[in-house]
Amino acid sequence: MKIGLLGFGVVGRGVYEIVNARADMHIAKVLCLEDISLPDAEAVQDFKQILEDDSIDTVVEAMGGLHPAYEFVSAALDAGKNVVTSNKALVCTFYDQLLPLALEKGVLLRATAAVGGGIGWLSELERSRRVQAIREVGGIMNGTCNYILDNMTRLGLGYGEALKQAQSLGYAEANPSTDVDGIDTWHKVILSSNVAFGVSLEKDTVPVAGIANITAADVESFTVHGLVCKLISTGKRTEDGYSAYVQPTLVSAGSLEAAVPLNYNLITFLGESSEKMSFYGQGAGRYPTAYNVVQDLVDVLSGKGFYAPYGGKAAAKNDQAMAYYVRGGWDGAAAEDWGSGVVTEPVPVDAMHRWLKAHPQAFAAGIRE
Amino acid sequence: MKIGLLGFGVVGRGVYEIVNARADMHIAKVLCLEDISLPDAEAVQDFKQILEDDSIDTVVEAMGGLHPAYEFVSAALDAGKNVVTSNKALVCTFYDQLLPLALEKGVLLRATAAVGGGIGWLSELERSRRVQAIREVGGIMNGTCNYILDNMTRLGLGYGEALKQAQSLGYAEANPSTDVDGIDTWHKVILSSNVAFGVSLEKDTVPVAGIANITAADVESFTVHGLVCKLISTGKRTEDGYSAYVQPTLVSAGSLEAAVPLNYNLITFLGESSEKMSFYGQGAGRYPTAYNVVQDLVDVLSGKGFYAPYGGKAAAKNDQAMAYYVRGGWDGAAAEDWGSGVVTEPVPVDAMHRWLKAHPQAFAAGIRE
Fold first, then answer.
1. Closest alpha carbon to B121 in B311, B288, B312
2. Confidence of residue B369 (pLDDT cuts 50, 70, 90)
3. DSSP secondary structure of A163-185
4. Is A51 on the interface with B (CB under 8 A)?
5. Tally of helices (H runs) and strands (E runs) in chain A
6. pLDDT (tens digit per residue) in A293-307
């Protein structure tokens, strides 16, 4: 296997290191805008040098971002090259373009590191599908949010302070919106649902609420009530289709999710035969992410492509009701007043997300039964 | 794939159901001592009717126990049939017979359900080995012990009461020794270490201590000190070889292990690139176990055999020291007195297990840092 590696940042360097220790694959060229020199690979600054090199059969995309990642990956697939990527935004956003293109061209596309980083999550969904139907996927899919919420809960920090700490450790970006507004988790749960259920969820039917408005007073209330707040994603089959959403969620202090520390992930599926299965590990970081990129390369070597068939478009329907903790002008029916906020009577998920869009300063968290 | 199924109990019936819904495999004969009649398979009472049927290419062993399971499985391998089993005692006890035999005969042997039931644990170790070295395996591998310890911790039950509850729910046998004395966990950690490290651990170098002597007063002490007791297995590479043992272990009340409820399992590996990865799910039960048996059958269809090469014999060395909680005549150095028992100064693991053998009424639990 001769590889063209796009990007030489955190993940790209990790992939380079792991691949260089192997005999069954070789990174021939590395696309990198900086002027680098590598002992075992040619550094190039123009993607064409990889695209037009017929000896390169597989492209690893480790640049991140949507553009030019999408153009490069599409061109590589179109040119008959296999593609492995860790880019969840890319695969989620262009699911309806990339999957059909790979199928049409008869090439292999894999993206295990895109959800769960070092966790073999998409690959386990793929394995699971061989024997059972999956009913539900979801969990803690973003290490940045978990780090912030965990430090707020354990150390009593305010949101701003916890975010700063995450930033100083490199767990959060200078502009943390993709993480704290739940966008990263949203990409991941859509991708997971698509693989688990063999569909292509219509993204605008999957609502997302983030953690940016949470305060120390909210967290104090949760602790008093034996609850812990986590950013949790849900994707499930329902009687009449699918439901999918991302929102802060209050879980019991004794639950497995509540015990997830620091920047770890915990992702769960419910299978018809296996029942509940959860996967815990590093959802990001150089070596965990690079590990699953190389796992994908090994699978490409044995002819494995995408995890599930490309399914038809499906809208998520989120009209099931649950109780929420809300702070910030809730005008609906309230069941309890916790001082810092109220607990609502059951509200349909989609209605609560519409209300949150209209009240951008408010904070809400679903209460898991 | 034409299958001979040995045993029609909890697991066997689950396998039968799942396989019958598939087009790529067929259970032709079922060995069952009771007189049953099945619509899609021939019920036989003599193993020879399966062994000597050349049209049967694969045998599923779901009888449990060592004999005649070992004789049947060996004969099947010897006759050129692939074997899938969920029997941890069998594969652990006869590792040095079954693996070489399968290799010699060029047939496939798999046993994913033997560790973790429905968790794809051995199969994930197999996947992991393709890209990284594994440093450590272990965790909560026995649902019966977890159920008993969890109920003692959460409900304040005594050991006898918690055991009775587990028995009444079918989680513990009438003679619970295999579970509560740690034998089941011992089989599983030896098997996991063998696969993870590509060795064959000498079983008598792996000490095991169980939970049968724990009391409500012990558990109360642990709670006061922010600790939770779990039966935890450990297998790891060390600087000069391997270490492996099973013992009650005190973990922090906020840890992931402490949050494992009821009869669930939580198994962990530490990989060089992936770092810590944990797997949570049903370690037993009809459908979870049958699920992984059928996963193995799918893998056999694609030519996958055992998870790791058959490695050389290796002795575990357990001379590393840790602090223990001990009750029952500890005469060594103590660092703290907790009333119900003492906390020792660091003691080598092997020394503590020797002491426990000489003091069969005592209870000890390693304290995880």
1. B288
2. confident
3. HHHHHHTTSS-SS-HHHHTSHHH
4. no
5. 13, 19
6. 999 999 999 999 999
Residue B131, chain A, CB below 8 Å: the answer is: yes
Chain A, chain B: beta-carbon pairs less than 8 Å apart: 125
Q: Return the sign of the alpha-carbon dihedral for residues B84, B89, B94, B95.
A: positive
Q: How far is A274 from chain B (nearest CA, A)?
A: 4
A146 and chain B in contact, CB less than 8 A? no
Search chain B and give the residue with CA nearest A20: B131
Chain-chain contact of A285 with B277 (C-beta, under 8 angstroms): no
* % of chain A with per-residue pLDDT over 90: 99
Of B81, B188, B230, B236, the active-site residue reads: B188
Is CATH 3.40.50.720 the right assignment for the domain spanning B2-110? yes
What CATH code is assigned to B132-282+315-367? 3.30.360.10
**Active-site residue, selected from the candidate residues A81, A188, A230, A236:** A188
Q: Which residue of B has its CA nearest to A19?
A: B131
Write the single-letter amino acid at B117.
G
3-class DSSP state for residue A137? strand
| Nearest CA-CA distance, residue A204 and chain B, Å | 32
Query: What is the structure's pLDDT at A369?
Result: 84
Query: Is-above-0.95 flag for pTM?
Result: yes
Topology of domain A132-281+312-367 in CATH is Dihydrodipicolinate Reductase; domain 2 (3.30.360)
- Angle (CA) B246 B251 B254, round 5°: 145
Percentage above 70 pLDDT, chain A: 100
Nearest beta carbon to residue A291 from set B18, B132, B285: B132
Q: Which residue in the block uniquely carries the two structure tokens 């909210």?
A: A218
Q: What is the domain partition of chain A in residue ranges?
A: 2-110, 132-281+312-367
Q: What is the pLDDT of residues B10-33, one digit of tens each?
A: 999 999 999 999 999 999 999 999
A97 has pLDDT over 90: yes
Question: What percent of chain B lies above the pLDDT cut of 90?
Answer: 99
Catalytic status, residue A188: yes
Same fold, A2-110 and A132-281+312-367: no
Nearest-by-CA chain A residue for B120: A124
ipTM over 0.85: yes
